[in-house]
Amino acid sequence: MLPLHPDCKDNRQYAMFIQIQTNISMDFSVKIAQELHLSAQHVQNVIDLLAEGSTIPFIARYRKEATGSMDEVFITAIRDRFKQLLETEDRRTSILKSINEQGKLTPELKQKIETAQTMCELEDLYLPYKPKRKTKASIAKAKGLEPLADILYRQEKGNVKQWALKFVNPELGVETIDDALSGARDILAERICEHTPTRTRLRSLFEQKGMITSKVAKDKEAEGEKYRIYFDNTELLKKTSSHRILAMFRGESEKALRIGVEPDKITALELIDRIHLKADNASADQVADAIEDAYERLLQPQMETEMRQQAKMRADNEAIRVFSDNVRQLLLAPPLGEKNVLAIDPGFRTGCKVTVLDKQGNLLEHTTIYPHPPQIEVHQANETIKHLVAQYKIDAIAIGNGTAGRETENFIRHVDFDQTPIIVMVNENGASVYSASEVAREEFPNHDITVRGSVSIGRRLIDPLSELIKIDPKSIGVGQYQHDVNQKKLQECLEETVSSCVNKVGVEVNTAGKELLSYVSGIGPALAKNIVEYRKEHGQFKTKSDLKKVARFGEKAFEQSAGFLRIRDAENPLDRSAVHPESYPIVEKMAAKLNCSPDKLMEEESLRKQINLKDFITDKVGLPTLTDIMKELSKPGRDPRQEFDLFEFDRNISDVSDLRPGMILQGVVVNIAAFGCYVDIGVHQDGLVHISQMAKKYISNPNAVVKLNQKIKVKVLDVDTRRKRISLSMLID
User: Fold this and answer.
1) What global pTM score does this model have?
2) Which of 202, 243, 445, 495 is the least crowded, having the fewest Cβ atoms under 10 Å away?
């Protein structure tokens, strides 16, 4: 028997509930398909798969026939829009119920509510019926002044004061004619404010013509110096860039700025007049006064709040998008690969923390050297580094790019190695966060934070993805106003970005830590912990099917995760690949048709060329999946990340004081914002390439994008040592 929904009394009622929900889902799929220009059936399939517990990476990679080969962007858009429509539908139901309970739900009103398309429309329709606290209008109604308001609104000719005199009643608190007229205007002001067409047209005016104005707060000039460009600023809100909106709102939250949003007041009042003024007489004068009061006291503040919320949401979405894109690029940075690495966390007074890592990133040895002031033990440091590099056959030296980074690089490059390893500057943003984290304490319970920080730097060189997922993305240092945006939405988006990257690359199940495993489709933290514990107790997994022996690793988890997991030394070559186990029989049929083994099919391109994919199409498996299988067979378990590219800063430039306008330097993009990108040129202070100073191809071509870790050539435009600002211009690649 089906479990009952809490609002259903029996299974028959529940079946009706399910049918209603199904119909709603189908209606939504048609609407979403129209909005996104997709097939309604494909949209419905995505909604169904999500409802069944499938993850976005799984749907995008292994259910292409059902979705028409949608990528993660479209699937995410469908999910988010479907959720939004459900929330609107829930609100519609709640509003209908509330008005009906008040006994005020007319057929006409019901139809308007049922056909309303947006949350704003619904709330406007509900506003006159929404339970309110005591207002000026409700007080006036309690004094019996609503009939007078009705008379005035009709704007008929007559003696207004004589009409009002009839409503003077000291017992009800209406002492004079002016009291009666004032109360009637209060009622009219609220009525005008709650008039749906008025709100709709005024909202449109605010959206199209609303200006955002920022002024310096009284006596805050000195404290708010960093907001000086906003001390007396007015601009069209809809064209204001996201970073400017967030900057102004931050200035307001710090009480340095005062912010206002409003179109031209006269234009707004004329708009409302055209809706409500019908005559030119004393009654109309009263209505005109009520209109001005309605606008200043009610409509303008309400619309301003709406516009600010919309602007903040728009700015948040843009900032979160930029941040997520940056995190994605950072996580998918090229790995050096399995190399023996000597990692150095540079420092002056406290010395440079040195750690030795094997090809899997395991800590073998650690020490501290003091090649810089005040100790200046250059000879001892030189001998220590030479010894470690020779003893452990070091392939690469990773040096953190923070304090003393360039000085340490310079020292290392002057060490007389027998065979010089590659030397790489590594972005150490967030390494200190990791070193003090619970994850780091669990990994290295017997080492202090300085050793952990150095290990993190070395591991970032070996495999950035595996190491950076241990750090809260907000601490990696590639965001724009990340502390000002909606934190829940930011966290959700960043977690999805990390998950997308992890599943794109794939995870070696026998070496991955629980942090990395937890981001694999269908696994999560609890199951990841179970996998690691099972591995410790029973040894390495021999086949992907062995995962089903892990506690709570059921069929659904296996379906969602198996394709993204790898077993490098598995006997079955398909377990080393991204081919999903559900497709193993297809590969076996391909091999059988050619009288060879799956191993041979994967090894020999000539065999794969003999396969006619159309021979293997079924009701459930089509060309998209078969094409993916063939790509995977040609390069099983391939890493989609680019090859590692060695980069070196100008050895003659190591401090801001070395810079001069006109210099041409090599740099690395370390952060991207809506207004440009920040570039590390090796002087401990990143320079800004404003969007106006980017290479022409990035300005003129919307499809050309700057990427994190991209190596670019820049020209120094200006150096402000006091404010620690470096202005750069990007040169043609």
Assistant:
1) 0.85
2) 445
